């Protein structure tokens, strides 16, 4: 499978979240060899969308001539797009959101009713492309934290999305936390294997991966310097 990882963390390879993504990919590779390319989004030159809709009227040509041109091509050639990012202000970091906005050339201006809502009809064939969100965050709570990022991803990629969220993710970069992070990464690896084999992950496993690794209060006390 051709996999494109969009690393939305400005910390690049030092990203906490990328530990989760690497474990997931290791699981996928365990099932079958995968072809993976990672883009450090922060290092790409991507102008802001101006909202001119020229791309939707002109068959997909954006007014900007920047790195997004090659990225869109690579997206179209991929089977799986992994959006790996830390939760920033309950959403995705600005550089990655910018990339999401700039995928507009994949859609046409025509809108159609899908169930109870409207969506744009594609002008590029993305029917085989699947989208996976892997999101880490700094707070210990998943509730009242990940909801808006999850809702955005679900609405953008209805029908072909999978979502993994993991709280307390700075622990992945703390060697002393290995006794709790290692078993969690083993679960993520298991999820990656399942995903490669069946195209989905057992919901109970998704829930377990999304639960705090240590009690919320203990985590908060450590972060606050009290332990
Ligand atoms: C600008 C900014 C906004 C953040 N917003 C949130 C947030 O809304 N919820 C949360 O739990 N953590 C938040 N965090 C913490 C990060 O999600 C956390 O540090 C994460 O582990 C960083 O992952 P990374 O190393 O992959 O970039 C924020 C961090 C920054 C720098």
Q: How would you concisely characterize the structure shown here?
A:
The chain has helices spanning about 15-30, 55, 70-75, 95-100, 145-155, 180-200, 205-210, 215-225; strands spanning about 1-5, 35-40, 80-85, 105-115, 115-120, 130-135, 160-165. With about 230 residues, the protein is an alpha/beta fold.
Structure write-up:
This protein has 227 residues and is α/β, with parallel strands linked by helices. Helices cover 37% and strands 20% of the residues. The chain is built from 8 helices and 7 strands, in the order βαβααβαβββαβααα. The protein has helices at residues 16-31, 54-57, 68-76, 94-101, 147-156, 178-198, 203-209, 216-223; strands at 2-7, 35-40, 80-86, 107-114, 117-122, 130-136, 161-166. A 5-stranded parallel beta sheet has the order 2-1-3-6-7, sandwiched between helices. The longest helix has 21 residues, at 178-198. The protein is globular and about 60 Å long. The termini are far apart. The structure holds flavin mononucleotide. Flavin mononucleotide is lined by residues 9, 11, 15-17, 86-90, 136-139, 145, 169-170.
